[in-house]
Every structure is written in C-alpha cells, then in structure tokens.
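Figure 6 in text form: structure in, sequence out.
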C-alpha cells in the first residue's frame, strides 16, 4: 500500500480516537466552534471522512481522465462560500442528522467502517479512479484521499477546540500533504507574493492568506 493510503489510515485512526474522547460524548448536544453545528454534528462530519470512502469505492470507475486537485477545488461548491450557502447548510444538516444516533452508535459505525476501508485500500489498484460524489468529474483514489486528509486535519482542530482539548498532533506523513495542498490553494487565491510574505516577512505580511 502506498504512502498516501497509509497516511489516510493514520489520519482516520486519529479522527476516530478524537471522536472517542469522553468529553465529546458529554458535550454532544452543545454548540461547537462552528456556527450552526453542535458538537455531535461536527463529530459526525469528521467521522464521515471515514464513512464516505466505501461508498466511493463501491462505485465503478468513471470514464475519462481524472482532474488534478487544484482543478477539483476550483469546482467544489463550498469553497469560499458563505455559511448560509446551500452547500454549507447541507453539510450542517447532514451532520446533525447523522449525530442523532448518539455518540456510542456513531463511534461503533465509524470504527467498523475503518476496518472495511483498510482492507479495501490494500486491494485497490494503484491507478484506481473514483467519481466525485457531488460532481461530474473524477479524481485518482489517492487524490481523493488527500481531500479526506484535509477534512480530517481541519475538522479535528474544530472538534478539539469545541470541547476544550488540544488538537491531535498529526504525523508528518499526514499533515505534509495537507499543508502542501493548502499552500497551493492559498497561492492561487492570493498570489505568490502574499503567501511568501506571510510565511517569511512579518512586516509585509498580508492580513489574510486563507486557502479555503
């Protein structure tokens, strides 16, 4: 199994461990750090980064060439969208619905699915292409898993902040592809000088280089 798939499984296990923290269950019904989403809904959204993978793998490989990650993020409906945009409203609605089963049942489902995913990723061909669930284009499986790593890293921080604990320290093989992707997205959005200055010249740093 290649490095991306191994990194995804490491990140997914970290997400499961965070969702299993007792404080998450205790504060399940409380507001999270994200407006309009309770802790349980946020935990469910984080867990969905495991639950969605078997669904994607169950679909036949789509025809045509896959797009690259920058093209993908140029097409997704939620990027740079406001909190009231339909794509973001749908995320909150789906998370809230998934959380209704309660923390124990959701954790059991995610844990069982992670074992299934691990076996499926070992078996998947190196050149496997997958359909994007909400679009008409395709990604390589490995690029799709990088998008899941981004979601895991960002929402692990959101969930940890929501319940007042330190976010997990993700290993380099997990966080490096996320930071690489975020940097490239930030450069596309703000330009190379802005990102370079933000990382190297505090006196000339722009106020914002957010990537997504």
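Output sequence:
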């Amino acid at each position: 199994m290649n490095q991306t798939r191994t990194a995804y499984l490491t990140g997914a296990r970290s997400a499961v461990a965070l969702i299993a923290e007792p404080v998450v269950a205790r504060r399940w019904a409380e507001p999270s750090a994200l407006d309009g989403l309770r802790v349980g809904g946020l935990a469910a959204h984080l867990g969905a980064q495991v639950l969605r993978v078997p669904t994607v793998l169950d679909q036949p490989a789509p025809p045509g060439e896959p797009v690259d990650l920058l093209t993908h993020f140029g097409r997704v409906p939620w990027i740079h969208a406001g909190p009231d945009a339909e794509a973001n409203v749908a995320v909150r609605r789906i998370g809230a619905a998934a959380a209704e089963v309660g923390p124990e049942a959701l954790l059991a489902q995610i844990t069982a699915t992670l074992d299934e995913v691990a076996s499926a990723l070992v078996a998947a061909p190196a050149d496997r292409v997958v359909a994007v669930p909400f679009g008409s284009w395709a990604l390589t499986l490995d690029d799709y898993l990088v998008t899941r790593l981004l979601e895991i890293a960002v929402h692990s921080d959101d969930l940890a902040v929501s319940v007042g604990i330190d976010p997990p320290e993700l290993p380099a093989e997990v966080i490096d592809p996320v930071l690489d992707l975020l940097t490239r997205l930030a450069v596309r959005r703000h330009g190379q000088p802005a990102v370079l200055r933000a990382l190297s010249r505090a006196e000339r740093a722009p106020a914002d280089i957010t990537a997504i």
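Caption detail: The mean pLDDT is 94.
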